[in-house]
Amino acid sequence: MFETYTIKDIAKALGLSTSTVSRALNGSHEIGAETKRLVLEYAEKINYRPNPIALSLKEQRSHSIGVVVCEVANNYFSQAINGIESIAYDRGYHVIITQTHESFDREKANVEHLISRHVDGLLVSLSAETTDLAQYKYLHNKGFPIVFFDRVAPDITTHKVTVDNYKGSFDATEMLINKGFKRIAHLTNSYNLLISQDRLKGYQAALEKHGLPFREDYMKHCNHGGMNHDEVEVIIKELLDLPERPDALFVTADRLTINCLQILKKLGMRVPEDIAIAGFTNSDSAELFDPPLTTVRQPAFQIGQIATERLINLIESKYPVTEFITEQLDTELLVRSSSDKLSAK
């Protein structure tokens, strides 16, 4: 086992005070050049390394980042977390991941726990239930570094990283219209989320552009984002039981999209012969589904990287940061046979 030396050991060996040794190691201008040289040479000789835990306690820095997401198993968030970790570890930070499972109470408890662990900053994607932003406002007003990604808080002025949800939704809806579908139902996440609101607006804008009516009975909010399978099945059955059944579904949440495809098959609906489907998902298996699934794909890995860079810059800034950036990345529409009108009856 390697012997561990402390500042006290260096001070005793050189006949100096521990405060003088500490300031010399930190390059303080209060310490003369000769003393600095003696201290640094001796520290190098004994292979002295600062104790990271002691440093953390002294600086109130843990060199860790707290991450709040709805679910790690979600394709989008698993890729975003990979992006987060790729930057964090290179910059000397550990990552602590928490899941809300779309619960506000769990999100609140997770944030409190992360703060008690002395994380240096938070990367947050809000739960579907979250409308009360008081804890984030309190932390932000105290100068605690927070960056929102994907599901952002509109009323807190800090760095945010997301995609152009309006355009991604508009493009997918317009694609379905251009393929000949006229009765397009829209399934989305909780209305509390800004991404749901923006995606709804994109869907409505595409309908309006092509002279199609917006129908309230075709608009469905799944408040658990597909995590509650029964909720999704009830909603799909409601749509299929309408006198004028939709001829296509446009779905705007990752897990929700996959669940819709599974439930349609369970109910004996042929895709796309009986009903077409397109949706937001980052599943790497989407093209292997039967049929291959038309998707709006988000650059989740890159979003995680950018958000982490922004957060670490906030953490390490020597001065209060007053200018913040909201970054919108582009989505990618991948058209596959689940939205193919040619085989529909």
From TrEMBL:
- CDD domains of this UniProt entry? HTH_LacI, PBP1_LacI_sugar_binding-like
**Alphabetic keyword roster:** DNA-binding, Transcription, Transcription regulation
Q: Domain HTH lacI-type: where?
A: 5-59
Organism annotation: Mucilaginibacter yixingensis
Q: Please identify the protein, giving its name as recorded.
A: LacI family transcriptional regulator
The record ties this protein, via Pfam families, to: LacI (PF00356), Peripla_BP_3 (PF13377)
Q: Which GO terms describe its molecular function?
A: DNA-binding transcription factor activity; transcription cis-regulatory region binding
Q: Does the keyword Transcription regulation apply?
A: yes
